[in-house]
Amino acid sequence: MKRKPDLLWILVILFGLGVVTTGYAQSLWNNKTDAPIEVSALQQQSTAFKR
Asked: What is the distance between the alpha carbons of residues 51 and 47, in angstroms, rounded to a whole number?
């Protein structure tokens, strides 16, 4: 009879995959020259002045 994997191990594996995926996505995001993160930062600044 095989033991089912514990919920803790499933969560650890999912968390590890999330960390790896996030790191990979951030590295791809930082390699883009026209990343829209600067646009969103400018929009936040402009809305701060309107208040």
From this structure: 7
DSSP secondary-structure letter at 33? Answer: S
Tokens of 1: 């009879």
Q: What is the C-alpha R_g of the chain?
A: 20
- Note the pLDDT tens digit of each residue in 1-51: 577 778 999 999 999 999 999 999 888 877 765 545 555 555 555 555 655
Tell me if 40 sits within 8 A of 47, measured CB to CB. Answer: no
Buried b (16+ CB within 10 A) or exposed e, 1-38: eeeeeeeeeeeeeeeeeeeeeeeeeeeeeeeeeeeeee
Q: Give pTM, 2 decimals.
A: 0.48
